[in-house]
Amino acid sequence: MATRASSFHRHATDHFEPQDTDDDPHAQRRMRGQLEQIDYTAFASNKEVIGAVLGHADAQKFQRMAVAAAMARAQWVKEALALSEAISPSHEQISRLGRLRQAYEELAEAYEAMRRMVERGYLPYQAPAKPPAR
Description:
This protein is mostly helical. The protein has one domain. The chain is built from three helices and four strands, in the order E-E-H-E-H-H-E. The strands form two sheets. Strands 1-2 form a two-stranded antiparallel sheet. The protein has a two-stranded parallel ribbon with strand order 3-4. Strand 1 and strand 2 form a beta hairpin. Helix 2 runs antiparallel to helix 3. The longest helix has 30 residues. The chain is flat and about 70 Å long. The N and C termini lie far apart (55 Å).
């Protein structure tokens, strides 16, 4: 199974990758064509659904996501620093720290997901309007 690295996790892709034991080039070409058609269907579906749900991406949306992730990260580390001063943090304090970390990771992953959507062409990106030339 192939894997790819993201900023936090290694994601496994579950595409079947057959060993080319069949020496028939026509069968191999036919299979590649069928798989390409399947991949295009997935692309078109993602583009249609994601575009309908999210509309478009722009610099303001990315900034809001980045600020939300940065705030969550700062709160998580602030809490960890406060806990480091305690001799023995309580179970509740450790649980809260875990929730803060999870919030940060979820927001950061959502940012990366939106970036991948733009990169793959699922989500149109509207660049900021350029100021008029002088």
